[in-house]
Design a protein that fits this description.
alpha/beta; Alpha-Beta Plaits; 18% strand; globular
Length: 360
C-alpha cells in the first residue's frame, strides 16, 4: 500500500512514524518543505519525499492532508486532479463542515474524500515532537455515511492498526460537538484571563492568587492564536450558538444568585455536574488534551534542576511544562512538572525516586 502525507508536522509526522512501525512494508511518501522532508527522512517517518505534490499522488492509495484548514481547502483541487480514481483522501482538520462542503464539489470523478479528526496532538510544533504512539487509544473521528464506510476499509483498518478508536460522525455533528467541548472552553479561558488581567492592573493580588484551580481551568488560554484563527473562521456559526447558550446559562445563574430561594437550585446543579463529569471516559483522548502534574521538592543547591531534567531526558520522558512554585531560601523549593500522559508522570516519579528526589 502507498500512502502520501501532506504536511509533516506533529500529526503528519506521527502518522508516518506509527504506520512505518506498524507495517514497514507500507510505502509512505511526504510532501512539505525540503527542511521538513529531511527531518522526516531522518526520523524514518517517510520513505521518501518531494516538494512536487503531483508526483506523489498518482500511486497513492490513501492521502492524508495534515495542514491547517485553509490550506486543506486550497489543496483539494490539485489532489482531485492527480489522484487515482480509487484513492481515499482524508484530512486531520479541527473543523469539518467547511472542508466537507468544499470536497463534495471537487471530488466527482477521482478519489473518495472522508473528513477526519484525530483526538491527538502535542503542545510542541514540528516533526521533532512527532510520536509513533500519539494515536494509541485516541478517538479518531471519520465523517463517513453508511454507503462510504464500505469503500474506506483500507483507511479504517490502518487507523485501528496504529491504535486509534474510529468514531463515525457527520461533519455537522462533529462541529457542533467541537464548538461546545473544545472551542467554547477556549474562548471562556481567554475571556477569564483577559478579565483578570484588567482587574490585576488595580489589584496585583489577582494574579498572585490565581494558582491552583484557576490556573488549571485556564491552561488552554496559552494556546497560540495561529491555530485558532482557522477554527474560529470555519466553525463560527456553531461557536456562536454555543456562546449564546452558555451566556444564557450564566445569566440564569446570575438571576438565581439574587434570591435565597433560587440559590438552592445550585445544589442540584453541582451534584449533576459531578455525576456527568465522573461519567466522562478516562481511557481515551478527547478534544482537549490533558496534562498530568507531579510536584518535586528539591534542596537549594547548584545543579539540582539539571539533575532532574537529565534524569528524565535519559529515560526518554518529555516534560510538557515546568514551573517553580515556591522556594525556601537556603533550604529548597518545589517544582511542578507536567507530562502528556499519566504513564509518563508515574514513570517520572519512579525515575526521580531512584535519584533520591522527593515527588508528590
Amino acid at each position: 500500500m502507498n500512502i502520501t502525507i501532506i504536511g509533516l508536522g506533529v500529526i503528519g509526522g506521527s502518522l508516518g512514524l506509527a504506520i512505518k512501525q506498524t507495517d514497514p512494508t507500507i510505502t509512505v511518501t511526504g510532501f512539505d518543505s525540503v527542511e521538513h522532508i529531511d527531518s522526516a527522512l531522518h526520523r524514518d517517518a517517510i520513505d521518501f519525499g518531494s516538494i512536487s505534490l503531483p508526483s506523489l499522488l498518482h500511486d497513492a492509495d490513501i492521502i492524508f492532508l495534515c495542514t491547517p484548514v485553509h490550506a486543506i481547502i486550497e489543496l483539494l483541487p490539485t489532489i482531485a486532479t492527480y489522484c487515482k480514481r480509487s484513492a481515499i483522501i482524508t484530512d486531520v482538520g479541527s473543523t469539518k463542515s467547511e472542508i466537507a462542503n468544499a470536497a463534495k464539489k471537487i471530488f466527482r470523478l477521482n478519489g473518495i474524500f472522508i473528513g477526519g479528526h484525530p483526538m491527538a496532538g502535542s503542545e510542541g510544533k514540528g516533526i521533532e515532537f512527532a510520536d509513533a504512539l500519539l494515536f494509541q487509544n485516541a478517538t479518531y473521528v471519520l465523517c463517513a455515511d453508511n454507503s462510504q464506510k464500505r469503500k474506506i476499509t483500507k483507511l479504517t483498518t490502518l487507523l485501528h492498526s496504529i491504535g486509534a478508536r474510529v468514531l463515525f460522525l457527520s461533519a455537522k455533528d462533529h462541529d457542533t460537538i467541537a464548538a461546545t467541548i473544545s472551542h467554547l472552553p477556549q474562548l471562556i479561558a481567554v475571556a477569564m484571563m483577559n478579565m483578570v488581567e484588567q482587574k490585576n492592573k488595580k489589584h496585583p493580588e489577582f494574579l498572585q492568587l490565581a494558582a491552583g484551580g484557576f490556573r488549571d481551568i485556564t491552561r488552554i488560554a496559552s494556546s497560540p492564536y495561529a491555530m485558532w484563527n482557522d477554527i474560529l473562521a470555519s466553525n463560527s456559526v456553531e461557536i456562536r450558538n454555543a456562546v449564546k447558550e452558555f451566556s444564557s446559562l450564566l445569566s440564569q445563574f446570575g438571576k438565581d444568585l439574587q434570591s435565597s430561594s433560587r440559590r438552592n437550585s445550585f445544589e442540584q446543579r453541582f451534584r449533576n455536574a459531578k455525576t456527568v463529569r465522573d461519567a466522562i471516559p478516562k481511557n481515551s483522548k478527547g478534544f482537549l488534551q490533558p496534562v498530568h502534574d507531579i510536584f518535586v521538592s528539591v534542596d537549594d543547591k547548584p545543579g539540582v534542576l539539571s539533575l532532574i531534567t537529565t534524569a528524565l531526558y535519559k529515560a526518554n520522558i518529555n516534560i510538557k511544562d515546568m514551573e517553580l512554585l515556591k522556594i525556601r531560601e537556603g533550604r529548597g523549593g518545589t517544582f511542578r512538572l507536567s507530562f502528556e500522559t499519566k504513564q509518563d508522570a508515574e514513570l517520572a516519579k519512579t525515575v526521580l525516586k531512584k535519584k533520591d528526589i522527593t515527588t508528590i
